[in-house]
Write a structure and sequence with these properties.
Radius of gyration: 24 Å
CATH superfamily of the largest domain: Zn peptidases
Organism: Clostridium aestuarii
Strand order of the largest sheet: 1-2-4-3-5-16-6-15
Largest sheet: 8 strands, mixed
Strand content: 25-35%
Shape: elongated
CATH topology of the largest domain: Aminopeptidase
CATH class of the largest domain: Alpha Beta
InterPro entries: Amidohydrolase, Bact_exopeptidase_dim_dom, Peptidase_M20, Peptidase_M20_dimer
Protein name: M20 family metallopeptidase
Pfam families: M20_dimer (PF07687), Peptidase_M20 (PF01546)
Length: about 375
C-alpha cells in the first residue's frame, strides 16, 4: 500500500530542489539542505567533499561490509520553459536531467533505512556534485572519499523517460558510454576560389577526414560493439570567394569499453594524419577523455536484479538491457570499486517519443517513481547486507 506521508515528503524534497537548481560545483544551498535533512534523521554527515559533495553514514549491527548509494545533485545551465508552480527560481538554470529526483530518491532511501534498520553493515549515502561536466566523481575521489569513507561496492540510478515508469533496467558490462572530445586542425594553403590548383585546400581534406572517420565504426570495430563518432562543428577562415588556409573540426566519440576508446583514438589519429599527408596539408590532432564508460560489475548486477524484482516484480526488470550511448560520471567510481548502475523507468507513455526527453527545457521529473526508487535502494541494501 502506498505510504501517502512518505510519498508527499519525497515530492516536497524533489520540488524544492527543482525550484532551486544549482549547476556544477555551485550546489551550496542544495548540499546544505541535504545535510540538514540527513542530520535531522540522526545520521553522521560530512560536507564539502570534492567541493560541495555530501556523505552520510548509517551503521546497523556488527557487519563489516560497507555499501555506497550515490545520487548526483547538479542542474544544467538551461532556461526552463515550463510553467510549473515549482519552476526554477534561478534564471538560466534548471533540473532538465532529473538530478532533483535522484537526490530526493536517495534521501527517501536514507529515511527508510533509518526507520527499518533491517540490514547488517554500513551504508554510505553519497551526494555528488558536478555530474553534468563529468568532473564531480573525480573531485570526490581526489578529495579522499574512498580513504576517509571506504566502501566495498557502489550503486546508482538514473531516471529514464525512454522506458515505461516503474521498470528497472540494467546489464553487466558497459551500460553507458564514454565521452571523448576531439579537435582536428588542418593547415593548408589558401588561394582564390578560382585557382584551387595553386593552394592546398583544407576544406576538401576536412571532408575526406569526416567521411573517413565513419569507417572506424563500420570497418574497425566488431559490429556487435557500440561506437559513435560524431563531427559536430566545422570552422574555416575562408570567405565565399577564397579557399581557406585553416579548417577546424570538432566533435565527440562514444564507446562502452576502455579498449574501444583506445582503438578509436588510435584510428582517428592515423586517418587524420594520413589524409592530411596525402593532400599536402599539416594536421594537429587533440583527443581528450571527458567521461569514463560506465561498466557494471556482473556480481553487482545480480544483486540489483534481485532487489528490483522484489520491488516492482520480475516482469518489470530487465537485467540485460541495451546500453545507452549517453555518458555518466558514475563510471569513474566504477573504475575504483565494484558496483552497478541502473535505469529507473519514468516514461508515462509506453511510446518513448511521446515522453519529454532529458536535457529538454520542458523536462520535469515524474514524481510517481520517487517512492519506487527509494524502496529499490532500501531493498538493495537489505539484499546485499542481510541480517
Amino acid at each position: 500500500m502506498k505510504n501517502i506521508d512518505f510519498a508527499n515528503q519525497l515530492k516536497e524534497w524533489r520540488q524544492y530542489f527543482h525550484m532551486h537548481p544549482e549547476s556544477a560545483f555551485e550546489e551550496k544551498n542544495t548540499s546544505e539542505y541535504i545535510a540538514k535533512v540527513l542530520t535531522d534523521m540522526g545520521l553522521e554527515v560530512h560536507k564539502n567533499i570534492g567541493g560541495t559533495g555530501v556523505v552520510a553514514s548509517l551503521k546497523v549491527g556488527d557487519g563489516e561490509e560497507v555499501i555506497g548509494l550515490r545520487a548526483d545533485m547538479d542542474a544544467i545551465n538551461m532556461l526552463e520553459k515550463g510553467e510549473l508552480l515549482y519552476a526554477s527560481k534561478n534564471h538560466g538554470k534548471m533540473h532538465a536531467c532529473g538530478h532533483d529526483g535522484h537526490t530526493a530518491t536517495l534521501l527517501g532511501a536514507a529515511r527508510l533505512l533509518v526507520e527499518r534498520k533491517n540490514f547488517n553493515g554500513t551504508v554510505r549515502f553519497i551526494f555528488q556534485p558536478a555530474e553534468e561536466p563529468g568532473k564531480g566523481s573525480q573531485a570526490m575521489i581526489d578529495d579522499g572519499i574512498f580513504e576517509e569513507y571506504p566502501i566495498d561496492e557502489i550503486y546508482g540510478l538514473h531516471n529514464a523517460p525512454f522506458i515505461p515508469e516503474g521498470t528497472i533496467h540494467t546489464r553487466p558490462g558497459g551500460i553507458m558510454a564514454s565521452e571523448d572530445n576531439f579537435v582536428i586542425r588542418i593547415n593548408g594553403k589558401g588561394s582564390h576560389a578560382s585557382s584551387p590548383h595553386i593552394g592546398i585546400d583544407p576544406l576538401v581534406t576536412a571532408s575526406q577526414i569526416i567521411l573517413g572517420l565513419q569507417t572506424i565504426a563500420s570497418r574497425n570495430v566488431n559490429p556487435l560493439q557500440q561506437v559513435v563518432v560524431s563531427c559536430t562543428e566545422l570552422h574555416t577562415d575562408g570567405v565565399h570567394n577564397a579557399i581557406p588556409s585553416n579548417v577546424e573540426i570538432l566533435g565527440d566519440t562514444r564507446s562502452c569499453t576502455v579498449e574501444i576508446q583506445e582503438l578509436i583514438e588510435t584510428r582517428m589519429r592515423s586517418i587524420c594524419e594520413g589524409i592530411c599527408k596525402m593532400n599536402g596539408a599539416d594536421c594537429e590532432f587533440e583527443y581528450t577523455h571527458e567521461f569514463a564508460p560506465t561498466v557494471n560489475w556482473e556480481k553487482c548486477v545480480n544483486i540489483v536484479a534481485t532487489a528490483g524484482k522484489n520491488i516492482v516484480g520480475e516482469d518489470k526488470v530487465n537485467a540485460n538491457c541495451e546500453p545507452w550511448m549517453a555518458s555518466e560520471d558514475f563510471g569513474t567510481f566504477l573504475t575504483h570499486v565494484p558496483g552497478c548502475f541502473v535505469f529507473l523507468g519514468s516514461g508515462k507513455s509506453a511510446i518513448a517519443s511521446e515522453n519529454t526527453p532529458l536535457h529538454n527545457s520542458m523536462y520535469d521529473y515524474n514524481d510517481d517513481v520517487l517512492e519506487i526508487g527509494a524502496e529499490f535502494f532500501a531493498e538493495l541494501i537489505k539484499v546485499r547486507l542481510p541480517q
